[in-house]
Amino acid sequence: MEKSILIAPSILSGNFANLGSDVKDMKAVGADVIHVDVMDGVFVPNLTFGFKMISDLRPLSDLPFDVHLMITNPVRYVERFVKSGADFVSFHVEAETEIEKALAIIKNSGCKCGLAVNPDTPISSIERYAALLDLIVVMSVFPGFGGQKFIDGSLERVTEAARLRDRYCPHALVEVDGGITLSNAADAAKAGADILVAGNAVFGAADRAEAVRHLHGKPQ
Ligand code: DX5
Ligand code: ZN
């Protein structure tokens, strides 16, 4: 039997004036995980939100919160993101920081830890940390904005990440983030992804449940 892919809508594409109702809706539409994009305006040229938003949203859903930090020096903040209610906290291998220390803080506070890799960074850059990881986030767009186009060549990088996972951290999940659509979701799953982040594909759809069903590979 084929493994079933997990769908993680990114609330970056939700309505910020009404995020509570978007978060509540995610379980009803069949999503598996809620992807939470945190941007600091320095690591990426955009700003979103921080701890309080996450801890206020947390009680509204029992789906896991997958917090993706696009911030500089994440070691300063990871513990507070765990405390705000994250189930997964990932940050970027490109962010200048004490990577091992930040991963250990996340793990020791009872959360799953991940590293994200930008499209122009070799997947091999995470090899030395791979044994510590619960999640590998392969960026298929340059981070900062939702609704961008999936970068060609990302599927090969997903397969490379899945190989690295099989070798060093077989329990870990491989996530693809950026530009996932109803047309490329199946290919990303086939390339080895376990989780597909989908912002625009879910929040831009007329029927979110139908979009999630399609992303799961069940178009009927
Ligand atoms: C990009 C974010 C992604 C993005 C996904 O910086 O990390 O999570 O919002 O949105 P879509 O699916 O619209 O590309
Ligand atoms: Zn993200």
Walkthrough of the structure:
This protein has helices spanning about 20-30, 50-55, 80-85, 100-110, 155-170, 185-190, 200-205, 210-215, and strands at about 5-10, 35-40, 65-70, 90, 110-115, 135-140, 175, 195-200. By secondary structure, it is of the alpha/beta class. Helix 4 (about 100-110) links the parallel strand 4 (about 90) and strand 5 (about 110-115). The chain is globular and about 45 Å long. The structure holds D-xylitol-5-phosphate (DX5) and zinc ion (ZN). Zinc ion binds near residues 68 and 177.
How many beta-strand runs?
8
Task: List segments where confidence is low: pLDDT < 50 over at least 5 consecutive residues.
Answer: none
Please estimate the helix content. Answer: 25-40%
Bound ligands, each once: D-xylitol-5-phosphate, zinc ion
From the N-terminal CA to the C-terminal CA, the straight-line distance is 19 Å
Sheet with most strands: strand arrangement: 1-8-7-6-5-4-3-2
The succession of helices and strands, N to C, reads EHEHEHEHEEHEHEHH
